Amino acid sequence: MLRELCLVNAKIVTPFSVIEGHVHIQDGKIAHVEAGPLPSLHLQNGCTVEDCQGDYLIPGLVELHTDNLEKHMMPRPKVIWPSAKSAFLAHDAQLAAAGITTVFDSVCIGETQDKGRYPMLKMAVKAFDECAHEDDMRVDHRLHLRCELNDPNMWDMFEPLAQSAGLQLVSLMDHTPGQRQWRNTDAYRTYYSTSKMWSEEEFAETVAILQERQRRYTPLHTRMVMEFCAQRNLPMASHDDTTTMDVDDALKMGIGISEFPTTLEAAQHAHAHGMTVLMGSPNVVRGQSHSGNVSALEIARAGWLGGLSSDYVPASLLHGAFVLHQQAGLSLPAAIALVTKNNADAVGLKDRGAIAPGLRADMVRVALRGDLPVVRRVLVQGQLVF
Prior knowledge:
single chain, 386 residues, alpha/beta, Urease, subunit C, domain 1, TIM Barrel, 8-stranded parallel sheet, 37% helix
């Protein structure tokens, strides 16, 4: 294991500025961050030196919500990959290549429409635990359980999976048509039109059934999950807040993260009350939401954006930060903080998220090709993983 490393000739993105200088890493932590060339003392002590050739050096990205594991576990609809561990390791390698050094793998517990996820849940969490135990992972993985509150079977699935030692974040979701993301039921119908060919009568009946399920199960499951998280002091996130009432409900439950608010009013209200407003970086890169919700760029320009999540495209996290710098008027340190320090702070990880003495040496060397950031090297606790 490499004990001492010096990264020189780098544009170092600190929490407050960009400095041209060098970083000294010792025993997996950042020892010094200084402007200018490397003092000869370090060379005399036998420190391994890497010339960054003027590239940017940023903290390792912190990802709070990615569905990417599901893509590897289920590469086609209702097709479960036979080796959950190989799927997990492929997912892990993809994250490292995207510059993500800490990830909260989101696993969906429950469904509104049957997507065939049920069989893979235990496999995914088992693979997570096995890879962690065997130290086979390149980056630091945590578990994020996404609870579909209106599913009658949600709690029966949640309880055994929640025993994983890696569980560190829980989010509350309700995709019932007629509210939140699907306040417009026509949009809900359009979204599922590739797999559901409802007649008018069938669609109306489906909506009525789902709304009755919500009335019966959502309040019960909300209370059960809240009590579980309170007992274990787990951070919680709300999902698809659409109105100020949705945000107020989350605040009453002590929730600190508003994931993917769908409207400007919800984002503004969440930000004003101290919640971390987490938006999707694919929304930033594309310039719009894939489901017709509010643009993350609008929220950033208004000053309400607290963090970014790659959601369904790992490579978009780094790209999105640079788009915010280039198009939304954010300084580069402020834009990078949205994918590093802010996310780490939102879940209580104080040992990472910035290039500063004493923190973990999780870092990404980034070259710009035009406006596109390209990952050149990735370090996790000072060790090369990509």
